[in-house]
Structures are given as structure tokens and as C-alpha cells.
Fold this protein.
Amino acid sequence: MEVDEVVCLPRLSRVAVCGGTHGNELSGVYLVRELLKARKEAMKKKEEEEEEEEPASVLMVLSNPRATQQCRRYVDTDLNRCFTHATLSGPVSDMAPYEMIRARELNTLLGPKGSAEAVDLVCDLHNTTANMGLCLIAYSDCDWICLHIFRHLQRQMPDVPMRFIHFDVSRKESYSLDSVGKHGFAMEIGPQPHGVVRSNIYTAMKDGVQHMLDWVRSFNSGTTFEGGLVDVFTMVKHIDYPRDGQTHDITAAIHPELQDRDFCLLHPEDALFQTFSGETLRYKGLEPLFPFFVNECAYYEKGIALSLARKRHVMIPAVRVQTEAEQQTAEQGFASEEE
Amino acid sequence: MEVDEVVCLPRLSRVAVCGGTHGNELSGVYLVRELLKARKEAMKKKEEEEEEEEPASVLMVLSNPRATQQCRRYVDTDLNRCFTHATLSGPVSDMAPYEMIRARELNTLLGPKGSAEAVDLVCDLHNTTANMGLCLIAYSDCDWICLHIFRHLQRQMPDVPMRFIHFDVSRKESYSLDSVGKHGFAMEIGPQPHGVVRSNIYTAMKDGVQHMLDWVRSFNSGTTFEGGLVDVFTMVKHIDYPRDGQTHDITAAIHPELQDRDFCLLHPEDALFQTFSGETLRYKGLEPLFPFFVNECAYYEKGIALSLARKRHVMIPAVRVQTEAEQQTAEQGFASEEE
């Protein structure tokens, strides 16, 4: 790929902004409610004025209303692990976990996953107890739409620490709600305790969503966005807490020297855990890596004390929206491929 | 009371340290487990050596095992509101909430509340998402034992911000586990998200409990502790979040200028909340007061966004333990009062 070559991509006609996929991650819950309220008021106002066409239709979704109502991550099972092809297409009974049923509803609303009918972009809003700032998390390190949106947010919000995290999982095995869209990412912001809403985190999320939608509108109306380098953190592995062999209870906490140091390079022999009796346990890996999701509340049950990533520079090309003629040609190509 | 008069108080023979009264406040859960493990190992060792008498018997209690196992505050109802005389003495069926039944078990183990058989001191371990440092919370501002322990902790742990909070509630209406002992307080440490254990908070709690037990041992062995002034924060009122009249959902978060500023004087017209649409709401009280429990996760459902306190200086007298002769005289007095 030539750096100065402009990649033409399909218009992003339908965007979904989802909150409350985890019912106790409150920034997204209150932001989606607020956006719905604002739209209702805007529509009331518009009825009186002349109609104005939106450059993209934005769908606001409260993903897990039952868990949200109870202020819990989930009711029966983690909704954000229910979007694999296997789970979405397997048999399901009335006795199935609530979230498995809800995942199918969301797949009907926003997908079906992998089809031409799926929404163009899913932005799923999350919080973490880890000191991660604002992260976009995606399954691809070459989805130019996601990477351009990331770079736009970085430039528009210079005071918010921001990273792009890449989970190297195939599309078929991708498990989260954002994988239902043609493009998609989780917007993960912390630190914030689950069940709590902090103004600064709420405002960062509100601004992030606003800038994301601004970028989509600008892209759809024909702007060319220049290429460049983006730092991508690719997840390498998870590390669990030390645990008691019999009870499986954790026997140590994240070491004070590592706590809150997400994305600060962890070197071999750096302090990793402090046991409850006061002993320091060290990182025994051979390669320095970047820790993230350090002491995330919801991952105790998943056996993850922190995750480790490798950082790379990814060159992203300039992009612009396809013209109508280009889009028709592309669609014809797509159709003939399908035959 | 003369400042140089030494108040003689009964020996503190039995102390209870309780963790997991709220099952997702993890410092106390892991600390009590660790202390139990350490004692088991010490007893094993002691069997081999000669027996040594402890200056006080220390009971370690995991208060709400079912909630702890599920990592939730409670299963059916808040255990730490179940220790009023009314709740402990009313009728109870097998259909009663789990925590009401558990409260009676704990009252049998550590009380009965208000009786001569009750343990001498209950220290109940808690965490908060609010930036409160280490607080002792008690129902009395003239319990010299609690206030002396507080002052001892303050002196021994100068790097930890520390306050004494007084809830002005009668003994009969006192509702929390620590009210079961002859003396008692909650040791509340934050900020820590519920469901998470942070090393620094765990270590502060461990040190706090150690210094508390050291003070008790020293008191029991006859040390005289000098009197002096202690700052006491007496709770004046709670403030709820602004809420939607119909849904009762909150419509604002704690203002960024107030967030994490527990115990920083709040003046009339200071910023209090930021609505989800971005508006600032101000404190309309007439008296400057000290905010605490600012944005505590568990209090959303209780309708408390923050509490406000008035600060006073309380003069505490010098104290020492009663001699055996003094204790016998006091007990005879108690017995004849009872007749």
C-alpha cells in the first residue's frame, strides 16, 4: 500500500451507540438515556421547524435492560461473550440464560452479524475499574474506519490518555456486541467503580461519542482523512492472581507498584503481586510488555488479574467515502462474488 | 471532668474483628481470612512450644458468608441495618431474609446486644468507594475507648488521612453490627471499588487492626493513656441525587469539583452536582459543612449522594484499665443496680 493512496470505503449510513451491555457500567447507561432524551426533545422541536436530513442514522440501544435495572454486570451470563457465531446460531430454548436470548434480539436489531444488513458501525460503551483512560478495543488492527476514528478522538481530546487495543481473535470467534456491526469497537473508560458514575468519566465518554459521530458525518459528506502512524496495543496474554490450591481464593493483590500503572511497560522482575501476608511476587516473563486491565473488578471471576500487550506502529492509509458510482461498482462486485 | 483525672474502665477481655459484613467489601474479607490462617499456623507452632496467655481473646468473624461467596453487598437485605433492638427481638420465620437470620446468629455469638455477656469491643471492617481515607464510625462521641483507639491509630499511621465520624443515634436504634459490642466501631477505608482489593487499602486496614489490638493489649496490661483533644465529625444530614420525578432515575452525578473531596469544607453555593446534560447545581445550605461518603456506590439505592458533618473538638480524659479490686467494686455496684 502506498502511503499517499486514498482508500475508498463504503458510506457509514447506520451507526449504533450501545450502553448498559454490562448493567453496572453506568457511564454508558446514563449517556444513552441522555442521548435518547435529547433526541426526543430535538424531534419535538423539529416537527415545528422544517425537516433536516441526518448524514447518518444513529441507533441508541440499552443492551441489557434487566441487568441495568438490577445494577449488575449480568443476570445469568455475561452478555458481552454471547455474540460468537456458535452462540448466535445454536439451538435455544425458553430455559436459556436471559443474556443468550437478549443477544439474539440484539443480533436481529443490529445484525445479523456478518451479513450485508448489519449496521455499519457499533460503538459499545464500557467502564473499567482499571486506570486505562479511554481505550478503543477492536478485533482488527487494519480496520481503517476504527483506526481513523481513534486518531480523530486522540486529536480532539488531547487531555484524555487514549489507546487502541487489538484482540487478535477471528471474526467467527469474536464474542462481543461490537462484533455484530460491519465495523465496531468497545469504548472502554476508567477508572470508575462499577455501580458508580463519576462526572469526569461520563464527560469523557460523552465527548468521545460526540467526536466519533462528528467524524462519521464528516466522512459521509466526503472529507478525505490523511494517513499516518497509529500505536496499536495487541493483547498477548492474561495473568491470573495467585490462588489457594484448595479453595481457589486469591492469595495476593496487584502490587502497589503496578496498581494504576496501566500501559507503563512491565519489565522482567518488576513487582507484580503483593500476597496478603506481605510478600512481593515478581513478573517472570522474558519480554517487557504493556499491562492493561490491571485489577479490573469483573475479571476476578474470569481469572484475569491483568492483561499484557505488545505495542506496534501501524501505518493507516488516507481514507474517504466511496462516491455513489464507486459504491455501485463495489456492490456489483460483491453480488457477483456471492453468486 | 478534670483533664488530669484518670478514668478507670473495665478490661477489654474479648474483642471481635469482623470482615465481610458487606460481601463485596474485600479488604475485610481477605484480612480476616489471613488473620485466621496466621492464627492457625501460630497455634500449630505453639503446641510445640510452651503455652502463652493472650492479653485479650480476639474473635475473628466472617459476618456474611453467603454474600461474600457471591461477592455482593448482601443476598436479601443489608445485614448492617439488621441490628436494631426491634429487628433482633421481633418474630422471625424460616421465610425471613437470610441476613435477618444471620444477624441473630451474630447477636448470639457476639452479644446479646446490650447485655453483660456481649464482647467488649467490636471492630467491623468496611470499604467505601468514597475518598475517605481511614474512618472510625461510632454511635457515641464520648466512648473513651473508641476515641483513644482512634488517637492511637492517628499517631501510629501518620501517612493515612484519618477521621472519627459520629452518628448521633440512640443505642436502641443503632443498626449496625458494631453496636452489638459493649464498645464498637466500623473501620471504613477507601477509596476502593467494591469487588476489588487494592494493596494499599488492604495494608492500611491490616495496620489499623494491628495497632488497635496493640492498644487493647497495652490498655489491658495497665498502661495509662493521656487525655487530649480529638476532632469528631458528627453527621448532620444526607443529600440525595437529583432524580427524575417519574422514573426516580438519577439525573446528575457528583460535581467534579466535589468528587474525591471528602472532608473538605463545602460552602453555600459551592458546586454539588453536574447534570447529565452538563448543568451545575449548587449547595443551597446556609451552613458550611464537611462532606463525606461522597459518591459511595452502595448508597445510590439508599438515596444518599453524600453526607454532611459538623466538626467539633472533643476533650477526652486520660484512661487506664480498672484494677481487679476496682472491677469487683464496679461489678457489685452493677449487680445491686440490677436488683
Remarks:
- Chain A has seven helices and 14 strands.
